[in-house]
């Protein structure tokens, strides 16, 4: 019997395969196509000749854990214990899967805010839990009345993705206060904070769960070096959680991964000494601004993008087709691949929205925009 009977090939694979078949510019999958920082490459070239190719400790390379602790202190003012509250993971997705399967049991309910990243629900289902999808407002802000109404005695976790994929929305301090008010009434509920785009924000600062003292002892925060350092193929991220939760997460992690690849850990540990994450944010803001300026005369309506490297557009002035069909048409007739937003909803809610990834070279964005302006 299948544990995931309704899962098939992901929309990301489908759209990328179509793009490859038809020679389309691929703005669907969320990974950069520009070169890595030369400093990172130089460290990589030097370190690969060193004696760094055996297992690291299960929780992570100590020097990397120490650098992350310093970064967390600098960025958020939070002191974390490298021995008991941190874990290096094989990408944030593995960290999220491990967390859910360590802390959610059969029949436990997990609230997922739609539209949502496609790994959350399968992670819950594999663990025997029950995913409860709660729709965001039409402007993609959280609807706390719906969230509170969805809570039952079986609710054990809520997943919050901030900054938000696919919409680029960022939570405000008022949003966090509203969540804290609700969770004060329900001490059994844990929070899984997916903050993989924490260093890619624009119009307002990212507010991290690290800064929410009321929630620190019940929150697991997932971060991604793949996203922050644009090395998605390295598949390396990390979790920070209070000791009593991290103990359970490590029990699962040791049999799922044991330890993450040593090369990337050693390289990133040294790179964190020189990288400035504010530079990452500024670089992506320039790309967002360029892409938006290139599309301003198109028939697409651009939605606000406060963070992430995704731009959502509405195509209601162009077509009445559903978003999956229009996304396929965009590849076949116009040579640009995007992701339809309906696939991020449990009910496949279609508001005629597409998601473009602008983590691309300027040349790629210019070429794609030229095609999109002719749609």
From TrEMBL:
<keyword id="KW-0663">Pyridoxal phosphate</keyword>
<dbReference type="GO" id="GO:0008483">
    <property type="term" value="F:transaminase activity"/>
</dbReference>
<dbReference type="InterPro" id="IPR051326">
    <property type="entry name" value="Kynurenine-oxoglutarate_AT"/>
</dbReference>
<dbReference type="InterPro" id="IPR004839">
    <property type="entry name" value="Aminotransferase_I/II_large"/>
</dbReference>
<dbReference type="InterPro" id="IPR015421">
    <property type="entry name" value="PyrdxlP-dep_Trfase_major"/>
</dbReference>
<dbReference type="InterPro" id="IPR015424">
    <property type="entry name" value="PyrdxlP-dep_Trfase"/>
</dbReference>
<keyword id="KW-0808">Transferase</keyword>
<protein>
    <submittedName>
        <fullName>Methionine aminotransferase</fullName>
    </submittedName>
</protein>
<dbReference type="InterPro" id="IPR015422">
    <property type="entry name" value="PyrdxlP-dep_Trfase_small"/>
</dbReference>
<dbReference type="Pfam" id="PF00155">
    <property type="entry name" value="Aminotran_1_2"/>
</dbReference>
<feature type="domain" description="Aminotransferase class I/classII large">
    <location>
        <begin position="25"/>
        <end position="371"/>
    </location>
</feature>
<keyword id="KW-0032">Aminotransferase</keyword>
